[in-house]
Structure formats: structure tokens, C-alpha cells
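User: Run a structure prediction on this.
Assistant: Running it now.
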Amino acid sequence: MREQWNMGKNFSDAQLEVAAEEAKRLSDLGHEPSEEVEVNGRKIPWDRVRRRFRREKKEEWHKYDCAFLRRSFDGKAPVQRVMFLDGSIESDVEHILMQISNYYPECLIPGRGAAASGTHGLIISKSGIDGVKATLNEGLTLLEYGRPGIGYAMIEQACDRFRDVLREAEVDLLPTLLSILCGARWRNYNKLYVYMVGYYWSMSQEVLGMKHPVTTILGIWSKAHHVRDASEPLYRKILNIIDKVHPTNLAPGVVYGLETEYLTDLSQRGDVWLARNLADAKWRQRQESLGATHPYTIMMLQMRSMLIVQERKRLVTEAEQMLLKILRLGEEQFRAEGKSWYYVYALQIGYRYYRDGRYAEAEACFKRSALWVATMLSKAGSFHLQIDRQLKSLLRLKEMGLFSPLPPGWNRILDEDGEGDEMEDLQEE
């Protein structure tokens, strides 16, 4: 089936690296690369190369650093085709994407389906499917808060309403349905999820018929629930189709909601960098078209702030892994000729932990610095005085019960391949 749709297997590391090298060469020459690069007869979209470049931690990839690979995501540009992981999920998702591509553009043509509210409208009446989604979310929230009696009743009410929703055939039926099916909150209620999808499929067969694209999509979903793990390409497909149809009869609120859910999905998958750049572009877009104080603009501003916090946490974690790696190297090389600065690094890292209130980590670093500097400098030097003062200060805090010594193995770090590497514990003086 992949060959039939001209979608081959995932690209190898070597192919992506060749593409990155070509991007670097063309960028250095001042040339703009074409939309795709061909490697060994296969066309590789640049977004795949950029994504690998952003995530790759190995030093070999640093030499390909260039403006083209660092380029931010354009919120108005269509997203390149997504290549999926190997496995049965591929054919299922590809089939769904084909159904969406063939069916949904026709739904967006003005004059078909429910009329959309004005672009600047604030109050938008909820459609039937949006009401179903709201009722389902309320039911799940009640389940999470220990109110199963009311929660299950609301979910059952939402399922009963679905038959009428199918008859109304509103333009936001498919995107909102995908939003329901891809919801992360269902992961704690798999049995309920399986029942709901099966019920939706049965109702769609009855109301829309066996050959309707919505019925086909629900049929695939009911037999392969793992396709919800591919929510990213499904959101992208819908948003790209909407972006190409101007004007559209889809209410702006539906589009903005999809964009927000897509950004949330990206951030939950760990691609915070891409989500933040896309959120920045969408926020500027809404600010220009709706105004700075419009609720939909504020919605994206809030999303931007959340993504900035997530990105900061990721960067802080990454920075700490670098610091721990320095300590690990110091354990191995502090006696080596020309490697004598590790005692300085340990002291500086200790100061950082101390400022953050992480006194146990600070104590461990200061003790390392004391151990390592003893092989390099005389105890009469000022460096020893700095360390002694810090250790005495931490000793008083420890005697007051403000912290306890770290257990063995506290400084376990992850190397570039994601495998643990534990340093030897510091020798007690």
C-alpha cells in the first residue's frame, strides 16, 4: 500500500545527514535549496532534515549548522508530508489521510454545510458536534474527580446525541470528531474509548451509509485504536486543507481551536521548539487580523507563554546534563596533564546549585573541587579558602536539618545515546 501511494520507508540516518550537508553547502553559497532534496533516488522534505537537525545532539551534526536548517516554521506555509514510524499504524493512518484529502475540501466550499460566523465575531453558537465534545469533556472531568455517576451519564448523553449530529452533517463534523478521537484524556479510559468509537462507527453506518468517508474513518479507528498516536499528521492534514480553501464556511473558532490543539499535541510529543515558533507566527497572524485584545489572540498569547515555560524547562534540563557531564569528565581526568581546570568547574557548578537552593548538590560539587584542587595547588592558596568557607556554610545548614547528604548515584546522567552513565561517588574526606 505504501508503494501504491508513493510513500516509502523512513529515511535512514545517513540519508538525512547527506541532505543536511547539501543544505549547508547551498546555504554557504547563498543559494536557496529547492523544496525537496534527492538522496539515492529518494526525495526528502526539508522539514524532516530540519527536525532531525534540531533534535540531534551528536557533535557530528554541529558542522551542518546554517541559517536554512535553523529557519523558523512559517505559520502560513503548508506542512510537508509526514513520514510515519514503521509498523501497522502506517497503512491505517495513510488510509485515513487519503479519506480526509478526498472528502473534506468539498465540505469547506461556501454554501455547503453550516454558515460560519464573521471573522471578528466573539460569540459563536456551538454546533452539534461541538456540543458533543463539550459534554464528553465534562463527563471525563467528572470521572477524574471521582463522580462516576454523573460522569458516565454525561458521556452516555453525548453518545445519544451523536446520531442527530450525523444527520446535521455540519462542516465542523470531521475536524471536531478527529479532535475527540485523538484526545489524550481517553488514555486512562481505554475500555470506554473502545466502546465509544465502536458506537460512533455503528451510528455512522446507519445514518451516513457504509461508503461515506466518515464511516470509513471510524471503521479504521474502531479496528486500530493506536492510530490516535498519529494525531500530529491528522491535525496537520486538516489545517493544511483549511488553509488552502478561501473563503471557507468553517467558523473561525473551529480553526483556532484546532490550531491550539495541534500546538498542545506538538508540545506533549516533545517538539516544543516547533510548537513555539508556530505559536509565534499564529499569534502575529491573529493580532493583525483580529486585534491585540481579541479573545482568540489572547488565547494564542497564553499558549505562547506556556510553550516558553516548557522550552525553558527543557533547556534547563539540557544544561544540567552538560554540567553533570563536566563532573563526570572531572572524575576521570582531573589528574591528567593539561586537564587541571576541573576543580574550577566543580566550584562554579557548586555555586550555581547553591544559588538555586540545592544545597546537597552544591556540597557534593564543593567536595569534588576540594579533592581535585589538592593535586594542583598548595593549601595556602585562596582557592582552598573559598571552598572551605562554602563547605562550612553548608555544614551549618545541614546541622540545622535543611538538607541531607546525597545518596550514591545522584549524579547519573544520560549520554547522547540516551543510556545511563553513573559517576563514582566522591570520596569522603
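The longest helix spans residues 295-333.
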